[in-house]
Write a structure and sequence with these properties.
The protein is an alpha/beta fold. It has twelve helices and 25 strands. Helix 8 crosses helix 9. The protein is globular and about 65 Å long. The N and C termini lie far apart (52 Å).
């Protein structure tokens, strides 16, 4: 048994499923991202897998009965981490909230009057416990805001990264706090790319494989560098119980792999992972009180039977369709507000279409060049004109889109994560400005634009390979990852530590995944 001697027997760490953990010390009860409600996330698009709903009453009872200080840490506002239904079922007066102080003030507005109090932590901030502390790390690009947390007990460190992209900072975290005993974090995807894009199956599989294995490699590289005693896979994958999304559970080369697939990759990886034990846990399992477990392998037939039974228990209603006329009014108002708060619109020579389902799809167009919004139609049987980005809502998605534009029950980011849409774009390239306009709320767009301009830096660094030295831009053109913390992959490409974009230095630093982006690599005489 691999139980650290420095962790008292009374101290327990329980896996709650998805990104959730419960830490019980002699003096505190700490919950991290408890997603336990049976109502799913993103308008019932995502559900916990394996199912953990049975733990809601168990955890709630512990909170109600304990005399300890109760702390609930919420990493970010995405609904598979921030379960408002469960949180509001807890006795408010007994619970202190630990919340990230993001640029976006969503949590501040939501919990300003929370009876148990709230602590808004800063990046690298610490909160003292009776024996130890919590240390917090924030990643905030406006477009994407997340946090991670370290639980430190004397001579013991539990680093919960959930799905926060701080790969380039973990070495410093270890140097400051000591060796990492348990590392937990995501290995699975959490994006609508390429799942929702209008690719044929061959191209979708190709893009999914590249995305998935890049994430696997980045995580293995991190683990090999910092050598935690255990790695506990967490924060995914979710499962999809809506009948219109059910097929996503069984796609070939999905970006939502199960832990068994990552474990197979782990065993074959060329680097040295011998210092770390892979420890798969089911919801309700306690860490350290049993030997490390390997994840089970399930064929699609077994998985389909399990998920069908899960679906029958939980998914009881389909989202109703809404009337396009009502949606058009609300959508136009919302998009106009976004356009009015987007000072970089003139840099986007593109048209953004949001359309209703159908071969001849009618919808709303955002014309960035002319600064206007109008109605038009798109024929999906014809090639897409150049500089166009089209989102066709599908299934019952118009209703969820109305929720965004009318009463704010979903953010734009959350609607995209509902997967009830199809996307076509020409050219088929990521555009950070268009992406920022789409995923951010109107009130956050000016801050996003300022952050975007601040990231446009001329700072360069030297990258040394076995044969050459290159001068390249220090910041990744995607989300400003620090390339000085990157590494060379097996293909000889420089990999960004944040989202695993790779750059071919011999081809001028052009991005492999998105060739219109470059880090401007130039050979240096040394």
């Amino acid at each position: 048994m691999d139980m650290p001697k420095v962790l008292p027997a009374k101290q327990k760490i329980t896996y709650l499923g998805h990104a959730g953990f419960m830490i019980e010390t002699d003096h505190e009860l700490i919950l991290m991202d408890p997603w336990l409600s049976d109502t799913g996330a993103y308008a019932m698009a995502w559900f916990q897998y394996p199912c953990n709903h049975h733990l809601a009453d168990v955890v709630r009872h512990k909170v109600e009965e304990t005399d300890k200080v109760v702390i609930v840490y919420i990493s970010h506002e995405h609904q598979d981490h921030f379960d408002e239904t469960f949180l509001c079922s807890l006795p408010e007066s007994k619970v202190m909230l630990m919340l990230p102080n993001f640029t976006r003030d969503f949590f501040y507005k939501k919990f300003i009057s929370w009876e148990g109090g709230q602590y808004f932590f800063e990046d690298n901030g610490r909160f003292g416990l009776r024996d130890g502390y919590l240390e917090f790390y924030i990643y905030d690009s406006i477009r994407e805001a997340d946090s991670a947390v370290l639980f430190h007990h004397p001579n013991f460190n539990f680093l919960n990264m959930n799905d926060c992209h701080i790969y380039d900072r973990v070495t410093d975290i270890k140097e400051r706090n000591g060796n990492i005993d348990v590392l937990t974090g995501h290995f699975s995807g959490a994006s609508w790319f390429p799942t929702c894009y209008d690719y044929d199956n061959k191209i979708r599989i190709q893009k999914s494989k590249r995305n998935k294995y890049a994430r696997f490699s980045t995580l293995c590289k991190l683990i090999a560098n910092i050598k935690p005693r255990r790695y506990v896979p967490s924060a995914g994958p979710a499962c999809f119980l809506d009948p219109n999304l059910f097929h996503l559970n069984f796609e070939d080369e999905s970006i939502f792999p199960h832990a068994s697939e990552f474990y197979d990759f782990w065993l074959k990886w060329k680097g040295d992972l011998s210092a770390t034990k892979f420890d798969y846990r089911n919801p309700g399992d306690k860490l350290f009180y049993t030997s490390p477990k390997t994840p089970p392998t399930k064929d699609n037939r077994t998985l389909k039977k399990e998920l069908t039974e899960y679906q029958d228990r939980v998914f009881q209603t389909r989202l109703p369709n809404a009337d396009w006329k009502n949606i058009k009014i609300a959508l136009t108002m919302n998009l106009q507000e976004k356009l009015d708060n987007f000072p970089l619109a003139s840099r986007l020579p593109k048209l953004l279409f949001l359309t209703e389902p159908g071969i001849l799809s009618c919808g709303v167009i955002v014309d960035f060049v002319n600064g206007e919004i109008r109605e038009d139609c798109v024929d999906w049987t014809l090639p897409l004109p150049e500089n166009c980005y089209v989102i066709m809502a599908r299934h019952s998605s118009w209703n969820t889109l109305l929720n965004i534009t009318w009463d704010g029950r979903l953010t734009w980011y959350e609607w995209l994560l509902s997967f009830r849409l199809t996307i076509k774009r020409n050219p088929d390239e990521f555009d950070p400005l268009l992406d920022g306009f789409l995923v951010n709320e109107a009130e956050d767009l000016r801050a996003f634009c300022e952050h975007y301009k601040e990231r446009q830096t001329d700072e360069t660094i030297l990258i040394h390979t076995d044969t050459k030295t290159y001068r390249v831009s220090r910041r990744c053109p995607h989300e400003s990852g620090d390339l000085s913390n990157g590494w060379m992959n097996d293909q000889g490409h420089l990999v960004c530590p944040k989202h695993s974009w790779s750059f071919d230095l011999e081809n001028g630093g052009r991005c492999v995944e998105h060739p219109s982006f470059s880090i401007n690599a130039e050979v240096q005489d040394v």
